[in-house]
Design brief:
Order of helices and strands: HHH
Shape: elongated
Distance between the termini: 79 Å
Helix content: 55-70%
Structural class: mainly alpha
């Protein structure tokens, strides 16, 4: 399995988790945080403020997603750049001889030796 495939799988997993964390939040202060403790944001189970946890997890997952995308781009550029440049070089070599041909000079109506 290539490194790009691994990065792609990780990107899909992180993107799914980010969607779930964002969908749990409510922009008006409701959502999961209000259902576990009312106005104070307190919840059972040891986490003091659910809104802080959701906020930190959103930023962490978003940062991780950005880093994974950049790293996958590096693996694409590192592995495929040599093959791509050869294709481009071959197409330039075949196009250059056609472009360097000079057009035929038009014949003048009066000869120069008269």
């Amino acid at each position: 399995m290539s490194t790009f495939t691994i990065f792609l799988a990780l990107i899909v997993i992180v993107a799914f988790l980010l969607i779930v964390v964002i969908m749990v939040q409510n922009p008006k202060g409701g959502g999961l945080s209000s259902s576990f403790g009312g106005g104070g944001g307190q919840q059972l189970g040891g986490v003091k403020k659910t809104t802080d946890f959701l906020d930190k997890s959103t930023w962490t997952l978003a940062t991780l997603l950005l880093v994974l995308i950049l790293l996958s781009n590096v693996t694409i550029m590192g592995g495929g750049s040599a093959a791509e440049s050869r294709v481009i070089d071959n197409s330039i070599e075949t196009a250059v001889p056609e472009a360097t041909q000079t057009p035929a000079q038009p014949q003048s109506e009066t000869p120069d030796n008269q």
